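G.,

No rush on this.
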Amino acid sequence: MAVPSLSGSGVGFDVPGKTRQLANSEIIQGLARFARFLWGPIAVACCYYAGTQIGFALTPTHTPISTFWPPNSILLAALLLTPRRKWWMLLLAVLPVHLLAQLPLGVPIARSLGWFVGNTGEALLGASCIIALNKRETLFNTVRGVVVFLLFGVLLAPLFTSFVDAITVVATGRSGSYWLLWNTRLFSNMLSELTLARVIIIFASGGLSSIGRASWQRLVEAIFLGVGLVLVTVLTFGGEPLRNSVPDLVYAPLPLLLWATVRFGPGGLSLSLLTVSLLSIWNAMHGRGPFTTASMPANVFSLQLLLCVIGAPLMLLATVMVERKSIVNSLRHSESSLSNRLGLEQSISELSRRLANSSVEQLDSEIERGLQHTLETTGAAKICWYVNRQGSPELVRLYSVKTSEARPSPARIEVGQIPYTAKRLVRGEVVVLRSLEDIPHAEVADRDFFREISVKSLLLIPSLSSTTVKGFLGIAFSTPRDWLDDSVNQFTVLANLIATTLERQEAERAKLESEQRFQTLFQEAFIGIVMEDLDGHLLFANRTFCSLLGYSEAELRDMTCAQFSDPEDTKIDWAQFEQLRSGSIKEYQLEKRFMRKDGSKMWGHIAVSLLKNQTGTSPLVIAMVQDITHRKMVEQGLRQKEQEMQQLAGHLIMAREEERQSISRELHDDVGQRVSLVAVGLSRLKEELPAKMTKEHSQIADLLNEAEEISTEVHELSHQLHSSALQHLGLRAALQGFCRKAERQYNVAIALEADDVPDMPSDAALCLFRVAQEALHNAATHSKAPNVVIRLLKDGQVIRLEVHDQGIGFDPASSTHGIGLITMRERLRMLGGELLVKSAQGEGTEVTATLRLAA
């Protein structure tokens, strides 16, 4: 199945206008991305500034350390909610607002920078340790996550960085006890991290969405809790100090905090604890509350310590309850899922049993019955099976079941209607959609299509067992649904079961059609077909075979193959037939002669193979016979013509050599001598002329030079036509002389490596010499080779001539062979040798001629 391209839809549009729209769209998208890039750091900076102002508002007079310092917890929460690679942006954003909030209040720049190092160091240390030891997603959902948060975010990070802040205050000239400053800063930051940081993380991670999903009873309960908590805290800590104060009243908000823990979980507890902390600390700073001492710092410290001691266990309690609730829900969900899986497994098993016992005609009804039972077991809205044939642009519905309320599945689905889903199915992926929101935002067509057919959750499973027909099982629900891996695996089993059943149905139908086709092919084939047993007795013969031999089928059934085969060919045929029977070979082909009923002979090409019977009985032998009598006659005529052509080529080459030798002798003995006589005559004439006839002397000198050049060229031409060095000095000397001349003629560097080959027959030496001439000529003129290597090697009675150049080369498979290569090959063939040519584009050419000398 191929997803058609939508680029060729033919929809026209104004190109310049479209280009401007695309440009404007890219600018807008770029600005939007830039705004989203800056939104996080700007929001954190604003919250950090607001937290700093709140911290200063909660700082007692004549005290440099706040009783509740929010900026550190705000920054810690922001770091935990932000990817690590973007932390630098947050730190860079809070630096200017940190200075902006502190410098106008008269805080020295050194102290302000020291506090910035302490604030950011505390947040970085806490966030790094927490992320290293626990996942962000499970920070407040598991006891482990809460313990890690309390240990590193609430305790250790403020503990270490409080030293930096206390040293900063003392070093910048502010009087006061170092340990008192350290102690005040430690519990101020611990309380802030314990209350505010957790509130920010929980509500930024989706806690606000739970408010919108809450029932009105739950909202009323939350309002009563909030109002009661504020009233109790204000009444407890907002009154004027009494002479006989009751310190136990500080525990008055504890029952309400337990209420928030049990009923509203970590989010409700954190918000309640933050409310109590802010109201109680504010009143304690102003000298109010049920305290037994008049020292404001001591009262604030005891209050901070109390809130930390109460908050940590309550936080663990809320997390334990959340974890317990999650486990209970998971067990209930697992029980329900197990029940559904068992029901689905039983349904699939029952369907498998019925399909195995059904005939081909019953398979369709059994599949629909099984899908209906699966629909009722799983509670799906509809289940359907679509198929797509190779090359088709649509999915065709084959089976479909649905509830009475569900809309029918489309009979056909164009691939273009669901391009995203179709691409995934083509790749063999299982498409799991818990809801339509799982479809990428850009894939509008898929989302609109599924919404139109009232599908809210979908599982599509491809079956790729067939190469021509793809099957797809679809299970649709009218509400969003979580798909467990076990359920997906079970539906995959169902899809494979249906696909296998359909393949079986198709195979059995194809088997019946194949048998019918085989009968037709067997009887109507244009070649002879026979079937025989392992003893060679004929069982069946088609009409063509009967007509080839002139026998009827009844006559052939009483005969063996040897009775109508040529005796010489029968031996060869029977030897291979024995190997076929023993299993040594699976098939064999042979050309043999047959004896017709009228006594004439027929050449036939037979192909024989075993037909193994699936029932376990003895296999049969099938033989196909083609009449090749006419072809054999043509081949015999061609072989005779080829022999005649080879003889003619040999005669032509010999005649050519004789002609070359005759012309060479004529040039050397006749023309060369005459030119020499002319030169002698010109020399005498020059001597007889008076010295004063300078012009005539010059002309005669020019004629002498011309005569000498003609004599030289005639001499060289004579040697090219027939080498006297080859005749008198041997092949090695002839090649040496030829190479020297060729270097001057072709301007090519030639390296000759030649073994001495004495007593080589003249015809063999001439053959190799001509091959060397032709190969070197081709290398210089066609291959454009700057360097050529010629080797003459002797290995026993084998003489090998190699000519290798570094030219442009050629492709022997695609190039047509010129007359030069044909001549070289024919020369070697006449003497029983062979020619091998190796070449490739850009890699040069290597010509190797091999001759074996008679012993």
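When you get to it, here's the other one too:
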Amino acid sequence: MSGHTHNPCPSVEEALRKRTHELGERIKELDCLYAIYSLSEKRDISVKEILQGACGLIPPAWQYPDITCGRITHQGQIFESAGCRETPWRQAADIFVEGECAGLVEVFYLEDMPAFDEGPFLKEERSLINAIAEQLGLLIGRVLTAEALRHSTHDLGERVKELDCLYAIYSLSQKSDVSADEILRGACRLIPPAWHYPHITCARITHDTRAFTTPDFRETPWRQAADIMLRGARIGSVEVFYLQEMPALDEGPFLKEERSLINAIADQLALLIERVHAEEALRESERKLHELSQQVIAAQEAERARLSRELHDDLGHQLAALRLELDWLIKKRPHGLTPEDLGTIMGMVTTATAELRRICKGIRPMIPDYMGLALAMEALVDDFRAHSATQILMDLHPVRNAAFDPDIAINLYRMLQETLTNIARHSRAGHVSIRFGEQDGQLALDVRDDGIGMPDPDSAESRGLGIVGMRERAALCGGSVVIDSTPGRGARVQVRIPAPAMQDPDNEND
């Protein structure tokens, strides 16, 4: 039997061709949907770009691409494929975005074609146009959400810029001894970066008769301004200018948020100016008070010196003369007064003379040099011992090489005197140690006690302990007083005063 090839049945071939054609149509539909989805993957693409691109992708997906055109309508805007026109052969589907009808997808055949499932259109094309409309609704919602997020992020960035500006202006006032002019000059530089178009923004701040501007400042028609008001009176203004014309927004080219910002800047500057002026007035008052306190201390010492001198020179001489007269009476007129009477009078004069010397020493001790200061301190401690059971340990080293300054010497003496007075009145101490000498170029006086301590030396409760006066005396000599104390654990007073210029020991006696 001879061999021969059997051809497939014509009906089978036809079915295969039909199936292959249908498969190709479905692939075209899937390609269309995928291509439309891919449009949304482009960075920062707009709804307009997606819809215009989708219009061009629709015709190749239909059965007769050569005579097919597409049209998409969205919120009054129309997007069409090339050569599109309306015809009677139309297929359409609504676009829904978040449940609301937002547009329409339409497909037209440009000529009459045989009838199929829906006029000349296939039922698969109905499914496809519905899928396209649904996909476009999702993509439009996605893009609109992304755009809203970008706008929200941008707006948030703008608000952060505004807050940064206000915080930076406030921070200017935190610098020590900053002036109002320095704050206003710094605020000028901080304004442009906070506005919508920082690269074309300049600023001017006026206060009283002074004006502060950014480096590239010039006046233009595009201006925003706010008055600086203090206690109902205008004391200046804040002005912002754009150096070129920009699109109109809420207030000319400016945003409503920038109106709020410039008003906030003006209010903040008013508060800072008031605060700085108050601080300057306080510092000036403290300076005058400090000068007055130093003058009072100097006047006190001058008056004490005068009293000591008059008591010593005048009353002391009179007592000495009286003693001589009494001595003369004892020798020349022994029968008028008994020796016992004259002895009693002589004892009274001697006691008065000794008391006068003690008072003079307390009012203004004679301190000819730092050796004399150490001796005066010892005498002061001896007097303290005579009236107290407190045990005192002294370690005094006279300063030999520093030039003697009598004002420093008397103020050191007074500070030790005040410290011992406080110990006697308040501390209930059993032991006190006193050290004095030169240390690292400074005259150092340290006093420790083991008493009940004291509250915070800067508190109102401690202000009656002579601490303010001690600090003023130290400041008068360019030094300081540090007090460390814990209630129940005693106290330590440290006085440090810069030593006057050191002398060459070899030339000390020249």
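The two ends are 153 Å apart (CA to CA). Residues 5 and 13 are 16 Å apart (CA to CA).

Enjoy the weekend,
O.
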